[in-house]
């Protein structure tokens, strides 16, 4: 079974192209984290919110990543970090073309 991690938080930026350039190294490092299958980056500049949706191999990997990432964000001065972990219903998700194996 795969596990989805949803994370979001308030931040002042950067957003858009500036975010893409500024966080490219971070994005590459996420690929090296245990159990990460993929991440979709999320942002809403008007609401000053950012975050991501991740797919993990195991719940334990998702929990460890959430703990590490929350600590990293806190070290950047970001507070009110919201993280949720969900089991993925593969059968139904595949009907809707979800990018899972």
TrEMBL record:
SUPFAM superfamilies in the cross-refs = Dimeric alpha+beta barrel (SSF54909)
Which keywords does UniProt give here?
Monooxygenase, Oxidoreductase
Per its UniProt record, what Pfam families does this chain match? ydhR (PF08803)
Q: Which GO terms describe its molecular function?
A: monooxygenase activity
- Family matches, as InterPro entries: Dimeric_a/b-barrel, YdhR
Name of the protein this chain belongs to? Monooxygenase
| Species whose genome carries this gene | Psychrobacillus lasiicapitis
